[in-house]
Amino acid sequence: MNLPFYIVDVFTEKKYAGNQLAIFLEAEGLSDEQMQKIAREINFAESTFITKLSPESNTATIRIFTPEHEMKFAGHPIIGTSWVLMNKIFGNQPRNITLKVPIGEIPVHQSGDLVWLKSAQPQFLDTFSAESFLSFSNLSSADFDDAFPIQEVTTGSAFVIVPLKNKKALENLILDKDIMNEWLHKHCKTNHRALYFYCLEDDKLISRMLCIENNQLIEDAATGSASTCLQAFLLKYNAPEIQIINHQGDFINRSSQIYFDGKLTENHFDIKIGGETQFIAKGEWEV
């Protein structure tokens, strides 16, 4: 059994930056175990598997796997998979499609070089004190931006949003993996446990996403699901409208640009993130 697949870089204006993604077509015959093994073999942050394709309605059902587990929702896999479908697979090259993922239907559209998704409504979970981070990081109390809370937020995948005062604190960040892992398991409300540090300095938004996977501390180059959570957080606590670029991956040599366009109106969040996708390769995967 051979599967056609594509490799792209997502949330980047140039090749060999942003977040890598593998997209496998004709995956309806694969078992959960096979999808997980393939995702582990290719070892990108995520890989997607298209299990149903409906060109007549411009829809597709996909599953998203990290090397360790399946995700209910993830931003860069949806953006990258949509770009491939709209520009390489669907013959009519539609500008609007819908991807079906475990949390529901995600509307996606392309405008120019940018592909945009609209996220589900956020949930704001527990808040935490800055002091609780001192045990597993090199941060001092003065490094946290106390104008904002530290809070776990989810739009399908949950992240603890951690505001820092400046780029220096973000760049110099060091975490103790084992103590961090204990903290995440003790405090996070969902099975998806990750930290999303950010700073707003001179009107520039910079971020870092760190989690533990396969007992290793992992930093992601561009995290769309975390960006939807951060956008919701900023709409709630900073301003009810936002148009800004979120810069991630700068400190691991995979610079990424995630576009924010959001609005909060009477407790309804209109959260959209967008980005460019760069085609890298295509081929056949022998199962």
From TrEMBL:
User: Residues in the active site?
Assistant: 46
What is any Pfam family matched here? PhzC-PhzF
Give the record's GO CC terms. cytoplasm
Family annotation (SUPFAM superfamilies)? Diaminopimelate epimerase-like
Molecular function (Gene Ontology), one example: isomerase activity
Which family does the UniProt entry place this protein in?
A: Belongs to the PhzF family.
Q: What is this protein called?
A: PhzF family phenazine biosynthesis protein
Q: Which organism is it from?
A: Flavobacterium yafengii
